[in-house]
Amino acid sequence: MKFKKQVAIEATVGIFAFAIIAVLFALTTYLSEEMLFRKYTYLDVVFESVSGLRVGDEVNARGVVIGKVKGLWLEPDGVHVQARLDVPVELREGYRIEVATGSVLGGRYLSVDLGDPAAPRLSLDAPLRGSASAELMDTATKTVQDIQAALNDGVLADLKAAMAQIRKITESLGEGNGTLSRLLNDDQLYGDVQQIAANVRTISDAIAKGEGTIGKLVMDDEVYGQLQQVAANLGDISGRLAKGEGTMGRLLSEDDQVYRDLAATVAQVRTLAESVGRGEGTLGKLLADEGVYREFQALLREGRATVDDMRETSPVTTFTSIFFGAF
Length: 327
Description:
By secondary structure, this protein is of the alpha/beta class. 63% of the residues lie in helices and 15% in strands. It has ten helices and seven strands. Strands 5-6-2-3-4-1-7 form a seven-stranded mixed beta sheet, with no helix packed on it.
């Protein structure tokens, strides 16, 4: 009986120990991300430098995680990186494998460019040559340094040019050249400016007191009322024009009878002018016929001669009238 009890205890302890070992094995397998009885593909890549790449970092192709870095070791030909591929891939000629920077804050991963799909396929059994990668921080730092240098050069050049301009201006002011220098150095001009300022102050005071035409316009309520009345009258006139009232309103209204009458009158005047220009009618003959013009000139000459004769015989006629009147 005692023997059976001892066997049971030992069996229980054995089973418990076996369970613990199984759990530890499963946990180790899970943590190492290794799966039993699964065939993995491994890459052996040789680099000059891995720039801080660590075991457990991701292997990335076209933005997709395809594996993990499982080993790093040094060899005479460089640093060997063993990458386990969870997803089978095919490398072709023109491939590129490099250590890339995950972010500005740090972190590395193995970036795989599979190459040209039309190129021949490569074997993964032999070691592959990794490509040198440009460090993100180094590149960013260099870019910032270049920008700072360019800015510094530009700022220094602009500062030098500005200082030269300021020196030139101060020298010109010291020599009394230019309007600003005269304003600063000429007492008479300064007095004129003071006088102008005083006049402006006097004018502004007069306006504030309502003196003068502008002052009345600004301060006098009666003038303001008159302006309002003028504005109202103008508004009334414009309203009447819009309604077509009055001669001007009729000319501007939609009813074009006045416009047609005016156009007919203008047409008649044009016809009359053309008729006169052609020498038609009495007025046309007077203006266009040279014979009538000469006869008119002769008539004027005869009339002038008659007037002259009457003027010469007027004393004789007067004397005769007086002489015979006496008898």
